[in-house]
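tool_call: predict_structure(chain=1)
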Amino acid sequence: MSPAVYIRRTGSEFLSALQFLTRIPVPSQPYEADSLSRAVKFFPLVGVVVGGIAALLHLLLAPHLPRLVAAFLVVLCLVLVTGCLHEDGLADTADGFGGGTDREQILRILRDSRIGSYGGIALGLSLLGRVVLIASLPLPQVATYLIVGHMLCRWTTLPLSYFLPSARTQTEGQEFNGQGARIARLTSTGTLIGGTLFSFAVAACLLRTGAVAPILISIVLALFTGLYYKRRIGGVTGDCFGATNQLAELGVYLCGAWTL
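tool_result:
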């Protein structure tokens, strides 16, 4: 592959990741069966972009508004930028695992676009938790934690998609072609290693020794949610990726708000 072709392909993969994870307008990318699995390597970098937007907004608002109001507007901005992608995954996952008693029932509930009691409660707590935790972060470090939080929460997709297969099988209909199946067990070793080194290095540069706890909580959440998904449904779905993403974001903010 020539350098020019490699650069064009890399740029296309980054734009595909940005297009998938956000509502930021980008040039439309041609569909390829493996385009999303190749773009996963840029998920943490997209997290830096999303977190950077939130950090810039907070820096503009913080001098003029109470902290809770500024945090609310930051979360509102994040929801608009991402198009509620991960929030939807959290709500569906809470409904599926909260209301389903076996694999088939869980997967059936996950396919249902309606939000039930478990999903509504999980979504409300997630939004409220993010507002409260962002408002509780040390003011000089809010921007840093926003960037690190959105980077590390998207990093969790890399190990989950590397180790876990799709929870759905080809015999279960068109859902096999869902977004989760496009990356489950299709992330390369190079993507996992490269994305991990990038994410942990950026976190260490921004938070110094304070990066240890956010990195550890992200690893622990990816590990335990992955084991839980594997035990309950035999793999992972797109909604599961979103749910772990939301939990990791909350976990990183909690580390920043925690006082010794």
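agent: The radius of gyration is 18 Å. Proceeding to next step.
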